[in-house]
């Protein structure tokens, strides 16, 4: 069987232009080591269960990824037929994480730190995965995962609101909670050239925190 380099390149280009589905995504959260408390503060967060519970959060949905730039209007004297529009500050939206209510409630644990006055800030990564899966090499113990196709890093996040599960005796749906998170900034990661390394670093950090938290 022969392969055409041009055919492979064309296939890759077609895949790159294909819209990504939203159902396959991952979220990694880890303590903000640069925030208040430094490393000691981060260790307290892990010991308190926040690092362990949120290291590899399994969320049903994530909303709010986006930015908005202010527009300033300037009118020129003697010119009535047009206005000059200049860009101002750019801000990012709050993020909303939705998750099914479980006996272990990491959403409440994290939000409780805000209510108690000991704000726990987190950094994190949201990334979408393609339907194309990574090879496992025939090893059944190694799970096959999707390939990252888009990712966003967010920084210095802390929860500002928690909407509890909606209860309805006439429904049999899963109880879902919604956590609103304020962030300082969010950046889209360039994939696959520069983003895979950063994603891998976050994945390793998140997994390490999860293991460390489970041992405490």
Q: Looking at CATH, which topology would you report?
A: Pnp Oxidase, Chain A
Can you identify the CATH class?
A: Mainly Beta
CATH homologous superfamily designation: Hcp1-like
State mean pLDDT (0 to 100 scale).
72
Beta fraction of the residues?
25-35%
SSE order: HEHHEEEEHEEEEH
Helical coverage, percent range: 25-40%
Number of domains: 1
Shape: extended
Amino- and carboxy-terminal Cα gap: 54 Å
Q: What is the CA-based Rg, rounded?
A: 22 Å
Sheet/helix structural class:
alpha+beta
CATH architecture: Roll
What's the tally of helices?
5
Low-confidence stretches: 45-56, 193-216
Number of strands: 9
What composes the largest sheet? Answer: 7 strands, antiparallel
Protein name: Phage tail protein
GO molecular function, one term: structural molecule activity
InterPro entries: CHP02241, Phage_T4_Gp19
Organism: Trinickia soli
